[in-house]
Amino acid sequence: MHPGYSLFISRELDPVDYQCIRQESKDFSPGERSPEWGNVAVLGRSDKGVLIAGGTAYWSGSWGRIDAIWSSALPFSEEMASLIIHMLERELEKSRCQTAELSPTTEVGMRIAHRLGYTATENRIWSKSLTAGLRSA
């Protein structure tokens, strides 16, 4: 897994994923704002897995759980994050594949962008910053 510019739900993380994340992470508290790294938003957890978005994932200290992200372009509020989690969980439930790509140019990606209030022009930023994918364990 590469943590840059991705959005996905993962039920569990294997040791390789963990090593990649640790190499990119900073020791901030979930939700803390860092001048060096930008906005960090707590996305919360669900029984389906955890959500990672943007450039860097923040390790919560519990195996297979990440509860905050760094996003260079789209600092999410908890409300937005909850909405994204809900929409992606629905896609995960419908997916019969190991990996289900969720590009912002797909129907699902466009619905998410629209519900988050992005206009057609702003969606170019969404598409560049948040190429999305779902991973199931």
Describe the structure.
The chain is α+β, with helices and mostly antiparallel strands. It has one domain. It has a three-stranded antiparallel sheet, with helices on one face. Strands 2-6-5 form a three-stranded antiparallel sheet. The longest helix has 17 residues.
Kindly summarize this structure in a few lines.
This protein has 137 residues and is α+β, with helices and mostly antiparallel strands.
Mean pLDDT across residues: 42
Based on Cα principal axes, name the global outline. globular
Strand order of the largest sheet: 1-4-3
Order of helices and strands: EHEEEEEHEHHE
What percentage of amino acids are in beta strands? 15-25%
Q: Number of domains in the coordinates?
A: 1
Largest sheet: 3 strands, antiparallel
Number of distinct beta strands:
8
Class inferred from helices and paired strands: alpha+beta
Please mark out the parts with pLDDT under 50 across 5 or more consecutive residues, or reply none: 1-76, 96-105, 120-137
Portion in helices? 25-40%
Radius of gyration: 14 Å
> How many DSSP helices?
4
Distance between the termini: 13 Å
How would the blueprint of this fold be written?
Elements: E1 6-10, H1 15-24, E2 39-42, E3 45-46, E4 49-54, E5 56-59, E6 66-71, H2 78-94, E7 99-101, H3 107-115, H4 122-129, E8 133-135
Index terms:
137 residues; alpha+beta; three-stranded antiparallel β-sheet; 4 helices; 8 strands; globular; disordered N terminus
